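Bench log. Compound arrived from synthesis this morning; before running ITC I wanted a structural hypothesis for how S-adenosylmethionine sits in the protein. Inputs:
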Amino acid sequence: PDIHQWAAVDDYFGRLLAPQDTAFEQILQCNKKAQLPVHDVSAVQGKFLALLVQLTKASRVLEIGTLGGYSTAWMAKALPAEGIITTLEINPDHAKVARENWRNAQLDKQIDLHIGSALDILPTLNGPFDLVFIDADKPNNPRYLEWAIKLSRPGTLIIGDNVVRGGGVIDSDSSDLSVKGVREFMSLMAADPRLESTALQTVGEKGWDGFSISIVKNQ
Ligand code: SAM
Protein backbone atom coordinates (compact mmCIF):
# COMPACT_ATOMS: atom_id res chain seq x y z
CA PRO A 1 0.00 0.00 0.00
CA ASP A 2 1.18 3.51 -0.72
CA ILE A 3 0.06 7.04 0.05
CA HIS A 4 -2.45 7.00 -2.86
CA GLN A 5 -4.30 4.09 -1.30
CA TRP A 6 -4.03 5.59 2.18
CA ALA A 7 -5.46 8.82 0.77
CA ALA A 8 -8.27 6.94 -0.99
CA VAL A 9 -9.24 5.26 2.29
CA ASP A 10 -9.16 8.63 4.08
CA ASP A 11 -11.41 9.99 1.36
CA TYR A 12 -13.82 7.05 1.80
CA PHE A 13 -13.96 7.37 5.61
CA GLY A 14 -14.02 11.15 5.39
CA ARG A 15 -17.04 11.20 3.08
CA LEU A 16 -18.89 8.74 5.31
CA LEU A 17 -17.95 9.94 8.77
CA ALA A 18 -16.60 13.47 8.52
CA PRO A 19 -18.68 15.02 5.75
CA GLN A 20 -17.85 18.67 5.49
CA ASP A 21 -20.37 21.40 5.11
CA THR A 22 -19.61 24.09 2.58
CA ALA A 23 -18.07 26.31 5.25
CA PHE A 24 -15.47 23.68 6.11
CA GLU A 25 -14.72 22.94 2.47
CA GLN A 26 -14.31 26.68 1.97
CA ILE A 27 -11.68 26.85 4.70
CA LEU A 28 -9.44 24.48 2.77
CA GLN A 29 -10.17 26.30 -0.49
CA CYS A 30 -9.32 29.69 1.05
CA ASN A 31 -6.12 28.27 2.56
CA LYS A 32 -5.13 27.00 -0.87
CA LYS A 33 -5.95 30.30 -2.51
CA ALA A 34 -3.83 32.11 0.08
CA GLN A 35 -1.03 29.59 -0.62
CA LEU A 36 -0.80 28.44 2.97
CA PRO A 37 1.31 25.32 3.53
CA VAL A 38 -0.90 22.21 3.35
CA HIS A 39 -0.16 21.26 6.93
CA ASP A 40 -3.73 21.18 8.23
CA VAL A 41 -5.05 17.98 9.79
CA SER A 42 -7.13 15.77 7.49
CA ALA A 43 -10.94 15.73 7.74
CA VAL A 44 -10.99 12.43 9.65
CA GLN A 45 -8.30 13.76 12.01
CA GLY A 46 -10.31 16.95 12.50
CA LYS A 47 -13.32 14.82 13.35
CA PHE A 48 -11.14 12.82 15.76
CA LEU A 49 -10.17 16.06 17.55
CA ALA A 50 -13.84 17.09 17.61
CA LEU A 51 -14.77 13.76 19.20
CA LEU A 52 -12.04 14.21 21.82
CA VAL A 53 -13.49 17.63 22.68
CA GLN A 54 -16.91 16.03 23.13
CA LEU A 55 -15.57 13.01 24.98
CA THR A 56 -13.71 15.15 27.53
CA LYS A 57 -16.62 17.62 27.72
CA ALA A 58 -13.99 20.30 27.15
CA SER A 59 -15.13 23.89 27.26
CA ARG A 60 -11.65 25.44 27.38
CA VAL A 61 -9.34 24.27 24.61
CA LEU A 62 -5.82 25.50 23.81
CA GLU A 63 -4.26 25.04 20.38
CA ILE A 64 -0.62 25.88 19.63
CA GLY A 65 -0.29 26.39 15.85
CA THR A 66 -3.34 27.75 14.02
CA LEU A 67 -2.36 27.95 10.32
CA GLY A 68 -5.62 28.62 8.43
CA GLY A 69 -7.73 27.55 11.38
CA TYR A 70 -8.99 24.23 10.01
CA SER A 71 -8.30 22.12 13.11
CA THR A 72 -9.49 25.07 15.22
CA ALA A 73 -12.80 25.02 13.34
CA TRP A 74 -13.33 21.29 13.93
CA MET A 75 -12.72 21.69 17.66
CA ALA A 76 -14.72 24.94 17.92
CA LYS A 77 -17.71 23.25 16.31
CA ALA A 78 -17.63 20.53 18.98
CA LEU A 79 -17.59 22.98 21.92
CA PRO A 80 -20.61 23.67 24.09
CA ALA A 81 -22.23 27.09 23.59
CA GLU A 82 -20.13 28.73 26.31
CA GLY A 83 -16.90 27.00 25.23
CA ILE A 84 -13.83 28.83 23.94
CA ILE A 85 -10.80 27.67 22.00
CA THR A 86 -7.66 29.76 22.43
CA THR A 87 -5.28 29.37 19.50
CA LEU A 88 -1.75 30.71 18.98
CA GLU A 89 -0.17 31.64 15.65
CA ILE A 90 3.13 33.37 14.92
CA ASN A 91 2.48 34.21 11.26
CA PRO A 92 0.11 37.19 10.81
CA ASP A 93 -0.69 36.12 7.23
CA HIS A 94 -1.86 32.72 8.45
CA ALA A 95 -3.81 34.38 11.26
CA LYS A 96 -5.58 36.72 8.84
CA VAL A 97 -6.75 33.84 6.65
CA ALA A 98 -7.84 31.90 9.74
CA ARG A 99 -9.91 34.84 11.04
CA GLU A 100 -11.69 35.18 7.73
CA ASN A 101 -12.34 31.45 7.60
CA TRP A 102 -13.92 31.40 11.05
CA ARG A 103 -16.06 34.42 10.27
CA ASN A 104 -17.39 32.71 7.12
CA ALA A 105 -18.08 29.54 9.10
CA GLN A 106 -19.75 31.58 11.90
CA LEU A 107 -17.41 30.10 14.49
CA ASP A 108 -15.48 33.27 15.32
CA LYS A 109 -17.33 33.99 18.57
CA GLN A 110 -15.91 30.86 20.18
CA ILE A 111 -12.33 31.38 19.03
CA ASP A 112 -9.71 33.51 20.81
CA LEU A 113 -6.72 34.02 18.49
CA HIS A 114 -3.39 35.33 19.77
CA ILE A 115 -0.80 36.38 17.20
CA GLY A 116 2.85 36.03 18.19
CA SER A 117 5.39 33.49 19.28
CA ALA A 118 3.68 30.80 21.35
CA LEU A 119 6.46 30.90 23.94
CA ASP A 120 5.76 34.61 24.49
CA ILE A 121 1.98 34.16 24.68
CA LEU A 122 1.76 31.02 26.82
CA PRO A 123 2.98 32.77 30.02
CA THR A 124 0.16 35.34 29.62
CA LEU A 125 -2.65 32.75 29.51
CA ASN A 126 -4.80 31.66 32.40
CA GLY A 127 -5.49 27.96 32.77
CA PRO A 128 -6.69 25.47 33.31
CA PHE A 129 -7.48 24.18 29.84
CA ASP A 130 -9.41 20.93 29.43
CA LEU A 131 -7.66 19.92 26.21
CA VAL A 132 -4.41 21.11 24.61
CA PHE A 133 -3.51 20.45 20.97
CA ILE A 134 0.20 21.00 20.21
CA ASP A 135 0.74 21.53 16.47
CA ALA A 136 3.31 24.28 15.83
CA ASP A 137 7.12 24.32 15.40
CA LYS A 138 8.28 20.88 16.53
CA PRO A 139 11.72 21.97 17.84
CA ASN A 140 9.82 23.79 20.62
CA ASN A 141 7.63 20.79 21.50
CA PRO A 142 9.51 20.13 24.78
CA ARG A 143 8.74 23.70 25.92
CA TYR A 144 5.12 23.41 24.76
CA LEU A 145 4.69 20.23 26.79
CA GLU A 146 5.89 22.00 29.92
CA TRP A 147 3.45 24.88 29.30
CA ALA A 148 0.60 22.51 28.51
CA ILE A 149 1.12 20.87 31.90
CA LYS A 150 1.39 24.23 33.68
CA LEU A 151 -1.91 25.29 32.14
CA SER A 152 -3.66 22.00 32.90
CA ARG A 153 -5.70 20.37 35.67
CA PRO A 154 -5.94 16.68 36.56
CA GLY A 155 -7.79 15.07 33.62
CA THR A 156 -6.58 17.52 30.96
CA LEU A 157 -5.87 15.81 27.65
CA ILE A 158 -2.70 16.84 25.80
CA ILE A 159 -2.44 15.86 22.13
CA GLY A 160 0.79 16.23 20.15
CA ASP A 161 0.57 16.13 16.34
CA ASN A 162 3.16 14.82 13.87
CA VAL A 163 5.15 12.67 16.27
CA VAL A 164 6.08 9.97 13.73
CA ARG A 165 7.60 12.07 10.95
CA GLY A 166 7.57 9.27 8.35
CA GLY A 167 9.38 7.02 10.81
CA GLY A 168 12.10 9.60 11.45
CA VAL A 169 11.25 9.64 15.16
CA ILE A 170 13.26 6.47 15.82
CA ASP A 171 16.48 7.97 14.42
CA SER A 172 18.45 8.88 17.52
CA ASP A 173 21.27 10.33 15.37
CA SER A 174 18.99 12.58 13.34
CA SER A 175 20.19 16.12 12.81
CA ASP A 176 16.63 17.17 11.85
CA LEU A 177 15.57 19.71 14.48
CA SER A 178 11.93 18.61 14.29
CA VAL A 179 12.89 14.97 14.90
CA LYS A 180 15.12 16.05 17.78
CA GLY A 181 12.33 18.18 19.23
CA VAL A 182 9.78 15.37 18.98
CA ARG A 183 12.20 12.83 20.50
CA GLU A 184 12.86 15.09 23.48
CA PHE A 185 9.10 15.73 23.76
CA MET A 186 8.42 11.97 23.84
CA SER A 187 11.17 11.36 26.43
CA LEU A 188 9.92 14.15 28.68
CA MET A 189 6.38 12.82 28.36
CA ALA A 190 7.50 9.29 29.24
CA ALA A 191 9.50 10.43 32.28
CA ASP A 192 6.97 12.89 33.67
CA PRO A 193 5.18 11.45 36.72
CA ARG A 194 2.28 13.88 36.13
CA LEU A 195 1.37 12.25 32.79
CA GLU A 196 0.00 8.97 31.50
CA SER A 197 0.66 8.76 27.76
CA THR A 198 0.60 6.78 24.55
CA ALA A 199 1.29 7.42 20.86
CA LEU A 200 -0.61 6.20 17.81
CA GLN A 201 0.72 5.99 14.26
CA THR A 202 -1.54 7.04 11.42
CA VAL A 203 -1.45 6.64 7.65
CA GLY A 204 -3.64 8.58 5.27
CA GLU A 205 -3.63 11.54 2.95
CA LYS A 206 -1.01 13.17 5.18
CA GLY A 207 1.39 10.23 4.75
CA TRP A 208 2.80 8.27 7.67
CA ASP A 209 2.56 10.15 10.94
CA GLY A 210 0.78 10.07 14.28
CA PHE A 211 -0.36 11.61 17.53
CA SER A 212 0.79 11.49 21.11
CA ILE A 213 -1.97 11.46 23.72
CA SER A 214 -1.40 12.23 27.39
CA ILE A 215 -3.68 12.66 30.32
CA VAL A 216 -2.67 14.76 33.32
CA LYS A 217 -2.98 12.58 36.40
CA ASN A 218 -4.36 13.41 39.84
CA GLN A 219 -1.29 14.68 41.69
N1 SAM B 1 -3.29 23.13 13.52
C1 SAM B 1 -3.32 23.51 12.12
C2 SAM B 1 -4.36 22.65 11.40
O1 SAM B 1 -4.34 21.41 11.58
O2 SAM B 1 -5.17 23.20 10.64
C3 SAM B 1 -1.98 23.34 11.46
C4 SAM B 1 -0.86 24.08 12.12
S1 SAM B 1 0.64 24.09 11.17
C5 SAM B 1 1.15 22.40 11.28
C6 SAM B 1 1.77 24.91 12.24
C7 SAM B 1 1.52 26.39 12.46
O3 SAM B 1 2.30 26.80 13.58
C8 SAM B 1 1.93 27.28 11.28
O4 SAM B 1 0.87 28.11 10.88
C9 SAM B 1 3.09 28.11 11.83
O5 SAM B 1 3.13 29.44 11.33
C10 SAM B 1 2.78 28.10 13.34
N2 SAM B 1 3.96 28.34 14.17
C11 SAM B 1 5.25 28.01 13.90
N3 SAM B 1 6.05 28.41 14.88
C12 SAM B 1 5.27 29.02 15.81
C13 SAM B 1 5.52 29.66 17.06
N4 SAM B 1 6.76 29.73 17.56
N5 SAM B 1 4.48 30.17 17.74
C14 SAM B 1 3.21 30.08 17.25
N6 SAM B 1 2.92 29.49 16.07
C15 SAM B 1 3.92 28.97 15.37
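What the model suggests: The two ends are 44 Å apart (CA to CA). The chain has one domain: 3-216.
ITC booked for Thursday regardless.
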